[in-house]
Amino acid sequence: MHPTPRAVVLFAVGLPIAVVPAVLGGWTWPGWAVFFAGSVLLLLVDTALLLPPARVATALEAPKSVYVGRSAPCTLTVSTTGRRAQRFDVLCDVAAALEPFPAVSIDVPAEGSTRHEFLVRPRRRGRFRIERLWLRWRGPLGLMAITRVRNVDADVDAVPDVGSVRAAALHWFGTRTFTGLKVERYVGDGSEFESLRPFVPGLDARSIDWKATARHRRVLCRRFRAERNHHVVLALDTGRLMGEPLAGISRLDHAIHRALLLGYSCLRTGDRVGLYAFDAEPRTFVPTAGGMRTFGVLQRHCAALTYGTAESNYTRAVLDLGRRLGRRSLVVVFTEFVDSVTAELMLDNVTHLARRHVVLFVALRDPELERLETAVPGSLLELNRTVIAAELRRERDVVLARLRRAGVHVVDATPEKLSSTLLDRYFAIKRRELV
């Protein structure tokens, strides 16, 4: 229980009144005494009319799990048994990985309850806690207030955004241009036999099946489709640079969402998908497997990936991954780099991996860096930022150009465009039978 700013103002007004007897004489001191006694009486009356904490009940309903980067409702119920309507100022203490709840005021009717919805939005994966609930309410005169802390201890699991992964995958599989199953059926786009069809002028004579022609007594040719059962390995860098925030969540979470999207698409088109995670040392390896049940395995292992604080060791990762892969595979590397100097080891090892396997290098472009580069500087500090942003972009382009010259397929896009660009590149590799 404590006085409010209104009570402080009330007694501050009494200070000039206390000086009046010293200026006009002692005959005015009863006025100051009456003012002081009245102020104290008002404080006592407001204290007596305060709603006791025992008559205030709270309940917080938090979701069990929330997708990273998305918001989910969290419902707070405040109820009282008092005979007078009451306004409560409410504030929640949450873990640092959750976006803080704003302080709100909730009006509760007499002997009633009020529900208020907060939006909980995690910035990282993991299990986080909504720890405490701060309540403050005032007396009817607004001179005295009570502040109470209620322990909530509600756990919220932040998991990869599988909902958006499924929605994006269904969107892509609903368009003819990029649908893997439909693209596979284009004549001449693959090497796997699909069916026989009558030969008509204009078709390649080398596709004629002479045994089937003799058996059916008419000229038949083979129709091919893209080969299935390719091995696709999603290699996720969990090192220090991947923990940096980008568009509200970390680069690693962006990479996990796109990796799951690509894995879902690969499984739908009949390929086998595996997972590999590394930072200073190898962390996770899931062997390639087919079937849509594999997507649940990938999801669980991606949710368990931790945010590393060490520098990524590409040499050790590439040697370990190369030892585990028994056949030619499509290796999709999700990683990040700063400049051409620190990326030398990465370049050497990724180039070495591309000699045996098809490597798809995926990096996230920072829109804020592009904004700084194209902004018109209005001061010397802004000019300095523009020059640094342009230099970082140039260094980035140098590294990506060297990767392309080494035969590595490169995807460098902003978070908004990464999903479409990545799927487009995967289907292009699949149609060209590069694996």
Give a structural overview.
With 435 residues, the chain is α/β, with parallel strands linked by helices. It has 4 domains: 2-48; 53-159, Sandwich (Immunoglobulin-like), CATH 2.60.40.10; 162-183 and 227-431, von Willebrand factor, type A domain (Rossmann fold), CATH 3.40.50; 192-225, no CATH class. Helices cover 38% and strands 29% of the residues. It is built from 12 helices and 19 strands. The chain has helices at residues 5-24, 29-48, 162-173, 180-183, 210-216, 251-268, 293-303, 314-324, 344-354, 367-374, 380-405, 415-431, and strands spanning 2-3, 56-61, 65-67, 72-80, 86-94, 104-108, 113-120, 126-138, 144-159, 192-198, 220-225, 231-237, 245-246, 249-250, 272-278, 282-289, 330-334, 358-364, 409-413. The strands form 5 sheets. Strands 1, 3, 5, 6, 8 and 9 form a 6-stranded mixed β-sheet that branches. The chain has a 6-stranded mixed β-sheet with strand order 16-15-12-17-18-19, sandwiched between helices. The chain has a 3-stranded antiparallel β-sheet with strand order 2-4-7, with no helix packed on it. α6 packs antiparallel against α7 (293-303), α6 runs parallel beside α12 (415-431) and α10 (367-374) crosses α11. It is elongated. The termini are far apart. Residues 176-189 have low confidence and may be disordered.
